[in-house]
Design goal:
- With about 400 residues, this protein is α+β, with helices and mostly antiparallel strands.
- Helix content is about 40%, strand content about 25%.
- It folds into 3 domains: about 150 residues, Gcn5-related N-acetyltransferase (GNAT) (Aminopeptidase, 3-Layer(aba) Sandwich), CATH 3.40.630.30; about 170 residues, Aminopeptidase (3-Layer(aba) Sandwich), CATH 3.40.630.30; about 50 residues.
- The strands form 2 sheets. It has an 8-stranded mixed sheet.
- Helix 12 links the parallel strand 12 and strand 13.
Length: about 400
């Protein structure tokens, strides 16, 4: 066996039918990393001409703590102890020669499948933990995502069946999005500033750090024409002119019904009319304060999302919304459009990507889980993170000093 660098062609061939293949272990992802100024290599183990395991490693060469990272990789079996041993030993030596202190990996290997509320659906696969540890890998650094929310689409024969598999609240949100005159379209490269603005607003609201604008640009470029993985940049827009007309029509219809209604029905119809009026007034205020609506013919961007398509699954990578327009359910409009398209193209799985794996309703991240639970799926728990230490003295010294807050990277 040999531990070698692989060509892009070799890796494409190897990963094309590998069960762990996904966008984060793709040639396009390695090109994205290089475009962002990072060093990315494709490393693997070969026996003769046959590739046994392979993956993309990103090197973070910092002053105090240089390390390598296989993000959601490598593509590696968990049962062949001899191959795992060889890979661990060679990776450790390669990391040391690279001048790095350690190298992490987080294989896209399932440890356990649980229901969306946390009940086990199958027995945990413990062999992978034991085999990786026997080979010299250490376990225990944080991996994002480690818990992935998915929905199988294979058993649904129509959009109607799929819609009825969601919770009542999610079905209502999707239907309301359709009634509120929201359109979903693909963003052009020149319009990525719209996505960036919505993502920044969401990041500030939810307390996470947004990607750089350069990241979105390079992601668009590298995955735009890929045959295996395609990134779709989508936006939901609210057509204010049509919405105002719809409210006016609803008011006139209710006013007519009130005039001809019996006394027992008038109160309920009057309450509905008042609700429509209040919502219409809210919309009018938003329109008057919205510069983009005047510049773009009355269409306001309210939500955006990035989805990675392959023949195996559609991944909802990330998305953002304008908080002022959450009531119009733009994010539901985009997801529903993508779900229907995936169903029509017979894509077997829709991947809502990461959740915390914590089912406590008091947890600060519970809102994300609750939103995804509305689509009624399941959660796949991955085996997590492992690492090899190439320079033990530097590694443990840094860990101790970092915990004592004596140094910061």
């Amino acid at each position: 066996m040999k531990f070698v660098k692989l060509t892009e062609t070799e890796f494409r061939t190897f990963s094309s039918d590998h069960p762990q293949a996904q966008f984060a272990q793709s040639v396009e992802f390695s090109k994205l990393q290089r475009a962002l100024g990072r060093e990315a290599e494709i490393l693997g183990v070969k026996k003769g001409d046959k590739i046994l395991t392979a993956g993309i490693v990103i090197w973070h060469l910092k002053i105090r703590m240089s390390f390598g990272q296989f993000y959601l990789g490598p593509l590696i079996g968990s049962k062949d102890q001899f191959i795992i041993n060889f890979f661990a030993a060679e990776l450790k030596e390669y990391t040391k020669n690279k001048g790095a202190i350690y190298c992490t990996m987080s294989p896209y290997l399932s440890y356990q499948t649980v229901s969306q509320t946390g009940e086990p659906l199958r027995t945990p696969v413990k062999a992978s933990f034991n085999n990786f540890r026997r080979a010299g890998f250490k376990q225990g650094y944080d991996v994002v995502p480690k818990f992935i929310f998915k929905k199988d689409l294979k058993d649904f024969k129509s959009d109607k069946e799929l819609l009825h598999s969601f919770t009542q609240n999610t079905r209502t949100a999707i239907r309301n999005a359709g009634r509120d005159h929201i359109t979903v379209r693909t963003l052009k490269y020149s319009e990525l500033d719209i996505l960036k603005a919505l993502m920044e607003a969401t990041a500030q609201k939810q307390g996470f750090k947004d990607k750089t604008f350069e990241y979105y640009q390079e992601l668009y470029k590298q995955f735009a024409e890929s045959k295996e993985y395609t990134a779709k940049f989508l936006i939901a827009e609210l057509d204010m002119a049509k919405l105002k007309t719809a409210y006016q029509n609803q008011k006139e219809t209710l006013q007519s019904q009130i005039c001809s209604a019996e006394s027992g029905q008038k109160k309920e119809l009057t309450n509905q009319l008042e609700a429509i009026k209040r919502r219409g007034e809210t919309v009018e205020k938003l329109v008057r304060s919205e510069r983009y609506a005047r510049a773009k013919g009355g269409k306001i961007p309210i939500s955006a999302g990035v989805y990675i398509w392959s023949s195996r699954e559609v991944v909802y990578l990330f998305g953002g919304s304008d908080q002022k327009y959450l009531q119009f359910n733009g994010v539901y409009a985009i997801i529903w459009q993508q779900l229907r398209e995936a169903l029509s193209k017979k894509i077997p799985t829709f991947n809502f990507y990461g959740v915390s794996g914590i089912f406590d309703k008091n947890d600060s991240r519970h809102g994300v889980l609750k939103f995804k639970q509305g689509f009624n799926g399941y959660i796949e728990q991955l085996v997590g993170g492992f690492y090899v230490v190439a320079r033990p003295l530097k590694f443990w010294s840094y860990r101790i000093l970092s915990k004592l807050k004596i140094i910061r990277d």
